[in-house]
Write a structure and sequence with these properties.
Number of helices: 12
Strand order of the largest sheet: 1-2-3-4-5-6-7-8
Order of helices and strands: HEHEHEHEHEHEHEHHHEHH
Helix content: 25-40%
Structural class: alpha/beta
Shape: globular
Largest sheet: 8 strands, parallel, barrel
Number of strands: 8
Distance between the termini: 37 Å
Radius of gyration: 19 Å
Length: about 325
């Protein structure tokens, strides 16, 4: 069975200023390690380059507790993520358990030829182990909360060489859970899930029209209690949250259009990557998330959801299967 094409991550665009001021309150640390308390905004660190440390520091101060990165120097400064969370933790008197760190193993094709974080000539299993050792060193920690396979290998034999190796890391206590990223065919996700000893707890994909917004994959994730994480969430969906009806709804809710779209995604059970580089927007996003976590329904009914959903361009965008599910 062929694997889906590995699609590289891309940075999210900045938010525009919120329509209404929102008060920021810190996310309780108990959310950091209780994955069932999802969906939740995660701070994405791709493309932050030399500013990564200061931005991670700002994000944690604003209230983010889930941080996403990768052992992929081409697009991430994983070492500066480590510096950023350590500085923020020291300032805020946080412990390692108060934060949730997610990183990735990236295959050879995901790296620049002159900057590969492991021995490219080593056996695949060795490359995976070397990547984890580097991630632990970069992030200044002795365990990873969530370790993701950044994209498909060229064949299933190699896929399971990687997967069996990252399963070993869970057995050894170095990693708490595993996940998949850039898998865009339902049959690939199902096959990987069914043949894994330790099941993936995360699917992280680009949320865009070309993949049909992963309608079937999101339904599978809901069925199997897998967290679906989205990236390129804002960049790929401008038409859905910048059309006149959506702008009017955002104004009514006291949110920016981007904030309204994050609320839409979380109402569908999606945990978006939030890559904001603006401190005010970080605080606005955390305030929005805390409104949702406190039980507030941002959308009154499915008709309000449809204002955005029907503009996505994807049929059957709503994978909320039960009428009684919270919006």
């Amino acid at each position: 069975m062929p694997l889906s094409t590995f699609i590289m991550t891309s940075s999210s665009i900045l938010h525009i200023i919120c329509m209404g001021a929102l008060l920021c309150c810190l996310l309780p640390s108990s959310y950091a390690l209780v994955l069932k308390d999802r969906p939740i905004l995660k701070y994405g660190t791709a493309w932050k380059k030399e500013e990564t440390s200061s931005l991670v520091h700002q994000a944690i101060k604003a209230g983010f507790r889930h941080i996403d990165t990768a052992c992929q120097p081409r697009h991430y400064r994983e070492d500066l993520v480590g510096e950023g969370w350590k500085a923020a933790a020291k300032e805020l008197n946080l412990e390692r358990k108060d934060l949730w760190l997610q990183t990735k193993f990236s295959g050879l094709g995901a790296h620049s030829e002159d900057n590969i974080p492991y021995d490219k000539d080593a056996p695949l299993e060795t490359r995976v182990r070397q990547s984890l050792a580097k991630s632990l060193h970069h992030l200044q920690t002795d365990y990873i909360d969530s370790w993701i396979m950044h994209g498909p290998e060229n064949n299933w034999d190699d896929h399971f060489k990687v997967w069996r190796t990252i399963e070993e890391a869970v057995d050894e206590g170095k990693v708490l859970q595993l996940g998949l990223s850039n898998f865009y065919r339902l049959e690939d996700v199902v096959w990987a899930y069914d043949h894994a000893r330790i099941k993936p707890k995360v699917v992280q994909n680009r949320f865009y029209l070309d993949s049909g917004h992963d309608v079937e994959i999101r339904a599978f994730c809901k069925e199997k209690d897998i967290e679906y994480q989205s990236f390129w969430t804002l960049t790929a969906n401008r038409d859905a949250y910048l059309h006149p009806e959506a702008l009017e709804l955002a104004k009514e809710k006291g949110l920016s259009p981007e904030g309204l779209f994050y609320a839409f995604c979380m109402a569908l059970g999606i945990s978006p990557m939030d890559g904001s580089t603006d401190e005010v927007h970080m605080k606005e996003d955390i305030a929005l998330m805390n409104r949702i976590r406190s039980g507030e329904k941002i959308f009154a009914d499915s008709n309000e959801m449809g204002i955005i959903g029907n503009a996505l361009g994807t049929t059957n965008w709503n994978t909320i299967l039960d009428e009684e599910d919270e919006l």
